Structure prediction request, 185 residues.
Amino acid sequence: MDTLISTETYKDYTIEIHYDDAPLDPRDDDNLGMLWLTHGRYAFPQEIDIDPTEITETTVYDAINEACDPPVILHVYMMDHSGLAFSFCPFGGYHGHFDSGCVGFTFTTMERIKEYLGFEELDDDRKAQIREILWTELKEYEAYVNGEVYGYKILKDGELVDSCWGFLGNPNGALTAAQDSIKWA
Prediction:
């Protein structure tokens, strides 16, 4: 059952914003990046076949490099304090020292870069663009694991006329999409 967050009247319609209680995992979509994350309490994605129990003389970082030679690979840090937060940098502050640490990596391959972006070669600007995409994908995953996924229902005279689900990160995205749907109806 979806949980109602807010209701708004827009033109002659009622828009309901709900939590999406059955969201799709954004890691099941096409992504430029791959994640390899591990944690004792969470079942995180490991999107490349590396078993950390079989790695002895090398690190996971080296194993990823050996397996797919990624042109961009970034550490992923996680803070577990009233929800999960992910970052490419270690967390500071009081809680950062106790509730966080490196949980893995996000990376991509040259083959994926060619397929998704059409780049044959990489310069610093293109690598920066790739890091931004990997950051966006990581933040989408963060929203998903924290249950920050929303949907809308549009009603007219109490009857459902439209709905859409899977808005990650902020309920305002669902509201804006609902208003756009009404504008174009």
In short: The helical segments are 60-68, 93-98, 110-117, 124-145, 171-183.
